[in-house]
Amino acid sequence: MGDWWERNIVEPGKLPLLLALTAFVLTFVVTRVVTRMIRAGKGPFGNVSAGGVHVHHVVPGVVLTVLGGFGTVASFRHGVGSATFAVVFGIGVGLVLDEFALVLHLADVYWTEAGRKSVEVVVLTAALVGLVLVGFSPFGVDDVSADERQDRGSVISTVAVNFLFALAVLSKGKARMAAFSVIVPLVGLIGFVRLARPGSPWARRFYRRRPRARAKAALRAYHHDRRWARPRRVLGDWLGGKTDAELDAAGRK
Q1: CA 203 to CA 215: how far, in whole Å?
Q2: Which pLDDT belongs to residue 162?
Q3: Fewer CB near the last or first residue (10 Å), C or N of the chain?
Q4: What single DSSP character describes residue 10?
Q5: Dist. CA 201–CA 199, nearest whole Å
Q6: Per residue in 23-42, pLDDT tens?
């Protein structure tokens, strides 16, 4: 365990990533606790306003992300400065991605069903950064041998093939699998051999004259969404809090 920790975490370049990930996750958790307390009217917290404008926490998040990002680059990923800027960057990203849905829709959808996208993006980001932290590299570069690294053509071809797999999976309407395939190429291969989701660019292009394939894809998507709808909602409620619609249905508002 000690050797793994030193090799994958404490080695130069990995400690700032660990600090940034920790700050990111803790910021998200603290932010959600505070926003839920504000909505419930509990505690000393309240919304921040300036000149009658509600200042969302994505604003200081952007500022901290910029400061942390440029600071980390300038510190060359070493020393106390690098660690400090990594924490600042992690806090900023946590604040920004907690309101990802607001930025996406350009509307205050924080406590709506659309706002659940923020929670999904935070979980996805934490998972991907965690995989990088424990040793995975984007597009399968970690699977390239030392000799192959000397041959730029081998590295470029490995990255290109895995990138195309990720792009194909994305065109099949499987954004989550495409994101994970960037870090774990095997996921891209699995997503590539499976049917595309209905309405995806792949389905519109290749299933247009294949009614059986369209019907099979629609049926598979229906069963998949039905199977995972409740677990996603439970996880979303637990991490992000219930939506306004759910509270209204429960008679709590």
Answers
A1: 11
A2: 78
A3: N
A4: I
A5: 7
A6: 999 999 999 999 999 998 88
Residue 82 amino acid letter? S
Quote the tokens at residue 220: 């598979």
- What's the whole-number mean pLDDT along residues 65-78? 84
Per-residue pLDDT band at 147 (split at 50, 70, 90): low
Dist. CA 165–CA 179, nearest whole Å:
11
Asked whether the beta carbons of 139 and 163 are under 8 A apart, the reply is yes
Query: At residue 238, what is the residue type?
Result: W
Distance between CA 139 and CA 186 in Å, rounded? 10
pLDDT at 159 over 80: no
**Contact between residue 9 and residue 79 where contact means Cβ atoms under 8 Å apart:** no
What phi, psi does 208 have (nearest 5°)? -60, -40
**CA distance linking residue 98 with residue 106, whole number of Å:** 14
Closest CA to 168 of 205, 212, 125, 220: 205
- Could you tell me the pTM of the whole model? 0.80
- The SS3 call for residue 49 is strand
Token pair, residue 88, equals: 């600042």
Residues 22, 47: Cα–Cα separation, whole Å: 25
Give the β-pairing of 49-50 and 53-54.
Answer: antiparallel
